[in-house]
């Protein structure tokens, strides 16, 4: 499908939500990589702040229209381009309400909580056993919510794979190597993850912008990050 879209992103959990959606819809688009791990902070440059005033990826331009925040991007893309309802339900239907509810579950709950778990377990400049336990435990609780839903429904919004699934998949998928969460503890969640992971469009979207790191290299990076945190003295006060 023809479009005039430029995606500004990096292969993070939020970033791939946008690229997977674009790939699932079969849209042509240009991908511009912004390495958010770089000390130069390209996402804070003035030109990009005109696209996303919050200075975060992903963001996109569709012609002159800017869209920022990953959930807004996903919703915009299906509202405008998913006329066949390939990965969305029609507004006004009960399934669309369910789709929106699970999308907001990821945006307001799973993403922020797992993001904090990742920060304190991998990237903080001090160790806090309290914060690690607090956010990893809450991440696991949210996984149990997904597990419960997926025990009664093949997909989060109902019988069909939608943007609600893409949103949570993008976060849950990496937790075994980042937080050492064993997804076999959540059998329905693991089946759901494996099924989505096998989709060709998903595999394409996970590698946009292209990363030169292999899965083994990523796992080693996370091991080193955890080891660095573990070597610190906890900052918690007793």
TrEMBL record:
<dbReference type="InterPro" id="IPR004045">
    <property type="entry name" value="Glutathione_S-Trfase_N"/>
</dbReference>
<protein>
    <recommendedName>
        <fullName>Glutathione S-transferase</fullName>
    </recommendedName>
</protein>
<dbReference type="Pfam" id="PF00043">
    <property type="entry name" value="GST_C"/>
</dbReference>
<comment type="similarity">
    <text>Belongs to the GST superfamily.</text>
</comment>
<feature type="domain" description="GST C-terminal">
    <location>
        <begin position="92"/>
        <end position="221"/>
    </location>
</feature>
<feature type="domain" description="GST N-terminal">
    <location>
        <begin position="2"/>
        <end position="85"/>
    </location>
</feature>
<dbReference type="InterPro" id="IPR036249">
    <property type="entry name" value="Thioredoxin-like_sf"/>
</dbReference>
<dbReference type="InterPro" id="IPR010987">
    <property type="entry name" value="Glutathione-S-Trfase_C-like"/>
</dbReference>
<dbReference type="InterPro" id="IPR004046">
    <property type="entry name" value="GST_C"/>
</dbReference>
<dbReference type="InterPro" id="IPR040079">
    <property type="entry name" value="Glutathione_S-Trfase"/>
</dbReference>
<dbReference type="Pfam" id="PF02798">
    <property type="entry name" value="GST_N"/>
</dbReference>
<dbReference type="InterPro" id="IPR036282">
    <property type="entry name" value="Glutathione-S-Trfase_C_sf"/>
</dbReference>
